[in-house]
């Protein structure tokens, strides 16, 4: 038999857990489907679970680890009565109200009937597919210059990618690093001309053309990068102590194809200055709808907004 809930939150991370805190404090009895540790997407706690030190989240002057921050948010949501389940939603149906949400067998009776749904499934940074990435993420390997650039003062580091994002990351990192080498698999960049001009004119930025990263070296932290030249086949190890992967992001929205309006890049469309989606009563927050800022604090803020939007929407329906 399906369980009826006023609010079902799909996904966790700073957005989903903040939404859980606010909806729980509003006595909306939310259930949060935080994801499964074994899944490649919808990971409980989101990308911060892969981050060692977080120094730019307000309120922690000495910094805090990503997993510790997520545990604090999770405990706070539970304290106010949110039900937190380490499960992954397998199907949704937003074509009728109450909305239907499945966990497990998508052909069985829906697990939840929801008056409102908050989507907070986040986005995944695209990675290189190297085994060392899993070991060294947060230990010299990063996907966010804004988050981690400060830790690379006077280092020689590299950025992998050739689009606007890669060049923006590289430009930002020159504030801290001795040098930033952009490793790109082609002999020309995909970035806009203005970004190319800025990067080429920066004395700290170098280019490694027609090259791919074969391996990242280091046990406790990054000590080098093995690069193969695609034209010559020559493989060399370079003594970079930081690697920033900037080859794109993929929003976790497969579950919502055909259910919600999505942008061309897969992110959920939300109305300006709100978290409302194309379906009345369904709200989206965090990196699943934010393809610009992608920060923990902005995700948390949008989780708060989604909770307030949902609360007011439910009040309007009841009235």
Task: Walk me through the structure.
By secondary structure, the chain is α/β, with parallel strands linked by helices. The protein folds into two domains: 3-125 and 249-318, FAD/NAD(P)-binding domain (3-Layer(bba) Sandwich), CATH 3.50.50; 131-245, 3-Layer(bba) Sandwich (FAD/NAD(P)-binding domain), CATH 3.50.50.60. Helices cover 25% and strands 26% of the residues. The chain has seven helices and 19 strands. The strands form five sheets. Strands 1, 2, 5, 6, 7, 8 and 19 form a seven-stranded mixed β-sheet that branches. Strands 10-17-11-12-13 form a five-stranded parallel β-sheet. Strand 6 (89-93) and strand 7 form a beta hairpin. The mean pLDDT is 93.
What global shape is seen?
elongated
The CATH superfamily of the largest domain is known as FAD/NAD(P)-binding domain
Strand content: 25-35%
Count of structural domains: 2
Oligomer: single chain
Number of strands: 19
* Main beta-sheet strand count, sense and barrel state: 7 strands, mixed
- For the record, the CATH architecture of the largest domain stands as 3-Layer(bba) Sandwich
Low-confidence stretches: none
Helix content percent band? 10-25%
Radius of gyration: 21 Å
Structural class designation: alpha/beta
Mean pLDDT over the residues: 93
What is the count of DSSP helices, taking H or I runs of 4+ residues? 7
Distance between the termini: 28 Å
């Amino acid at each position: 038999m399906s369980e009826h809930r006023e609010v079902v939150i799909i996904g966790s991370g700073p957005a989903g857990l903040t939404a859980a805190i606010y909806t729980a404090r509003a006595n909306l009895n939310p259930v949060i489907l935080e994801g499964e540790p074994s899944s490649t997407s919808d990971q409980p706690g989101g990308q911060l679970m892969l981050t060692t030190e977080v120094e730019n989240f307000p309120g922690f002057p000495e910094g805090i680890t990503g997993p510790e921050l997520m545990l604090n948010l999770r405990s706070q949501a539970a304290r106010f009565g949110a039900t937190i389940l380490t499960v992954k939603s397998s199907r949704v149906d937003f074509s009728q109200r109450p909305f239907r949400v499945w966990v497990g067998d998508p052909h069985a009776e829906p697990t939840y009937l929801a008056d409102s749904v908050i989507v907070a499934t986040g986005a995944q940074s695209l990675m290189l597919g190297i085994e060392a990435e899993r070991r060294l993420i947060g230990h010299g390997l990063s996907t966010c210059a804004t988050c981690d650039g400060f830790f690379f003062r006077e280092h020689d580091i590299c950025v992998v990618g050739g689009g606007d994002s890669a060049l923006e990351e590289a430009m930002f990192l020159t504030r801290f690093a001795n040098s930033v080498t952009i490793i790109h698999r082609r002999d020309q960049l995909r970035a806009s001309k203005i970004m190319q001009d800025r990067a080429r004119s920066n004395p700290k930025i170098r280019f490694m053309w027609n090259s791919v990263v074969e391996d990242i070296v280091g046990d406790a932290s990054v000590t080098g990068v093995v690069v193969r030249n695609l034209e010559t086949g020559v493989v060399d190890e370079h003594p970079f102590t930081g690697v920033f992967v900037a080859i794109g992001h993929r929003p976790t929205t497969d579950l919502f194809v055909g259910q919600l309006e999505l942008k061309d890049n897969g992110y959920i469309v939300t109305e300006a200055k709100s978290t409302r989606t194309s379906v009345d009563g369904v709200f989206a927050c965090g990196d699943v709808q934010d393809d610009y800022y992608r920060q923990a604090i902005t995700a948390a803020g949008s989780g708060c907004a989604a909770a307030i939007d949902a609360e007011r929407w439910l009040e309007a329906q009841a009235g």
